[in-house]
Amino acid sequence: MNKSILEYIQKASKEDKKLLAILLDPDKTSINDLPVIAKKIEDLKANFIFVGGSFVKNGVTSIFVKTLKRYTKIPLVLFPGDYSQVTNNADALLFLSLLSGRNPEYLIEQQIKSVPYLKNSTIEIIPTGYILIDGGTQSSVLKRSKTIPISQQNIDLAVATAIAGMYKGKQLIYLEAGSGAKKEVNSKIISSVKQNISIPLIVGGGIRTKEQLNKAYKNGADLVVIGTAFEEKQDVLKMMQ
User: For residue 235, what are the contacts with CB-CB under 8 A and spacing of at least 6?
Assistant: First the structure.
């Protein structure tokens, strides 16, 4: 990949080329299993591997990413639940602001805490507006952030939040139903948000079938993230093909 990861996503969005990321949570994935897992992800031809979780212990992510790098050339992108998960071993960082919540810890405090780790880092930093949509379960993100997700029916609020994120300078918008979601982000929210922003759209949470994957793409997702479904059944995407 010659371009930066953000440039690659932007170009794919303009060309309507759909992208896929597999999310690995170091808290739920054994380092000993990484050679096999990396091979399975390579076989799926995923564009990115996202790494992160809500409750990963300090120092674990750095070791996890460094080890994973030995087994794959797929770009590794940090999707951190806490500033302590930042590591220069990855290729890029989604610099997340939880726009759907009103907890200052995840709007700005975590970002400030990460600065000592990032200011001398060579990692690509991608400002990302993170928007939680109600996935019908108490996800790890909700427990960690202590915020209320946007209702699946409140399309206007989801759209306004995404637009506000774009106006604030975010380069990506990430609609997330949460880990282990019972319901994926509904197609109306995806399509409405996509129609109202001019930056790439990421969608994740609750996607377990080929139909759900294709529906997310069809309604405007530029990049879909598969996490829990891969954890539960690592050949799930082959079954989708």
Answer: 40
Find where tokens 């690509």 sit: 124
Contacts of residue 115, Cβ cutoff 8 Å, sequence gap at least 6:
none
CATH number at residue 81: 3.20.20.390
CB 150 within 8 A of CB 161: yes
Q: Residue 217 and residue 17: Cα distance in Å, rounded?
A: 10
Q: Give dist(CA 192, CA 110) in Å, integer.
A: 29
Q: Can you read off the two tokens belonging to residue 83?
A: 């500033």
Biggest CA pair distance of the chain: 45
Using CA atoms, how far residue 152 sits from 131, 155, 159, in Å, is 12, 7, 12
DSSP letters, 200-238, are -EEEESS--SHHHHHHHHHTT-SEEEE-HHHHH-TTHHH
Alpha carbon dihedral 27, 29, 34, 39, in 10-degree steps, equals -130
The number of beta carbons lying within 10 Å of the beta carbon of residue 154 is 15
Taking the C-alpha atoms of residue 211 and residue 46, their distance in angstroms, rounded to an integer, is 18
| Average pLDDT of the chain to the nearest whole number | 94
Domain housing 38: 5-240
Question: pLDDT by residue (tens digit) across 63-117?
Answer: 999 999 999 999 999 999 999 999 999 999 999 999 999 999 999 999 999 999 9
Total number of domains in the chain = 1
The three-class DSSP label of residue 104 is: helix
pTM over 0.85: yes
